[in-house]
Amino acid sequence: MVWDGEYSERSLSRHGLTAYACHPLLRAVGIDRSFYRPLTATEYAAHAAQVPADFRFVVKCPALVTDAMARDGDGRRAGANPHFLDPEMAWDVFVQPALDGLGGRIGALVFEISPLPPALKADVPALLQRLDRLLHALPPLPPTAPDGVLAVEVRDPDWLTPDFARVLKANGARYCLGLHPRLPPIDAQLPLLRALWPGALVGRWTLHRRHGPRGYERAEQLYQPYRQLMDPDLPTRQALARVIRATAAAGWPVHLTVSNKAEGSAPLSVFALAEAVAEDLAEKVADPPAAG
Predict the structure, then answer these.
(1) Which residues is 177 bridged to in the sheet?
(2) Cα separation of 102 and 111, whole Å?
(3) What was the pLDDT predicted at 280?
(4) What Pfam family does this protein match (any one) (predicted)?
(5) Which of 1, 44, 106, 193 has fewest C-beta within 10 Å?
(6) CA angle, 202 then 208 then 212, to 5°
C-alpha cells in the first residue's frame, strides 16, 4: 500500500520515510517517540532531510513536560512531576530542538496531557492557569515554521470546557482533536473546534472506541498485520471528512495523523478518508447554498 514490497525494519528505518513522503496522500507523519525521550535538533534534522519541503511533521511533546506524574523505568508512577507544564522545560527539550531541526516542515507541536490523578482533576481552574502560563511563554512558530501551530491534546474529558477553549484561543493555540476512547466521540468535541474557528485543524485518530481506553494491545493483536479495515468507523470518518473539507476550503492547513489501531490499517483509513472528503465536496458542489 505504501512501499513496493516487503522490507526489513532496518531498510525501512533508513529509507522508508523518504518513500512514504512520495505518496500523494501521505503528506504528514507523526513523531511519537519524542513523547518517551526528548529528541535533539540533530535527530529532528535527520527526519527533515528525508522529506520534501511541503511535507509536515506532527510531533508529540515529551512526557517530561506533559505527564503530571514522574515515572520509574517500568512506567509506574513515582510521585509528582516537578516539570509538569513547565514553560522553560518545554522550550528547552521540545520547542527549540524541533524548530532548529525541522524548521518549516513543522505542522504541529502537540502537548498531549496524560491522564491526570484525581487530586489535580479536582481543580480544573488551577490546571488551566498552568496551561495558560505555558502557552503564553512560548513564542509563535512562524516565521521559522510558517504552517506550524502549537496544539493541546488531552486524555481527560474534564478539560473540555469553554474556559479551556478560551485559554487556547487567547494564546493562539489549537485544540488537537483526540479520537481516543478516553474522550467523547468526535461530534461531542466539535463545539471546541467551532469556538476556536478560524484556524488550522490538528487531529490524531489513535484508537477505535470498541477497545476502551486501555485497548492498544488488544487492537494490535486483532489488527496485525494491518492490511485491512477490520473495524470501519464510518461516523468518525464522515465527521472528519466534513471538518477537513471545511477547514481546507477556508484556506487553513489540516494536520491529521492516523494509527493502525483506528480501524485496522492506517493507509487504508487515509485512503477511505480521502474518498469521504471528495464525496463531501461533491455534495457541496452539487447542492450550493441559495442566493439571498
Answers:
(1) 203
(2) 17
(3) 82
(4) DUF72
(5) 1
(6) 115
Q: Are 259 and 208 in contact (CB under 8 A)?
A: no
Span 276-289, average pLDDT: 78
DSSP string, 177-219: EEESTTS--HHHHHHHHHHT-SS-EEEEE---GGG-TT-HHHH
Identity (one letter) of the amino acid at 272?
A
List the grid coordinates of 184: 467523547
Task: Count how many residues are written for the chain.
Answer: 292
CB-based contact 246:217 (threshold 8 Å): no
Domains and CATH numbers, the chain: 1-172 (3.20.20.410), 175-292 (no CATH)
Indicate the helix (H) or strand (E) that contains 220: helix 216-223
Instruction: Report residue 196: phi and psi, to 5°.
Output: -100, 5
pLDDT digits (tens, 9 = 90+) for 210-237: 999 999 999 999 999 999 999 999 999 9
Q: What is the mean pLDDT of the chain?
A: 94
Instruction: Answer whether 115's CB lies under 8 Å from 109's CB.
Output: no
Count helices and strands (H / E) in the chain: 14, 9
Neighbours of 30 (CB within 10 A): 21
Closest Cα partner for 237 from 250, 253, 220, 256?
256
* Cα angle, residue 214 at apex, residues 89 and 71 outer, rounded to 5°: 35
How far apart CA 129 and CA 215 sit, in angstroms, is: 32
- Strands of the chain, DSSP E: 28-31, 56-60, 69-71, 77-80, 106-113, 149-154, 174-179, 201-205, 254-258
- Check if the beta carbon of residue 111 is closer than 8 Å to that of residue 66: yes
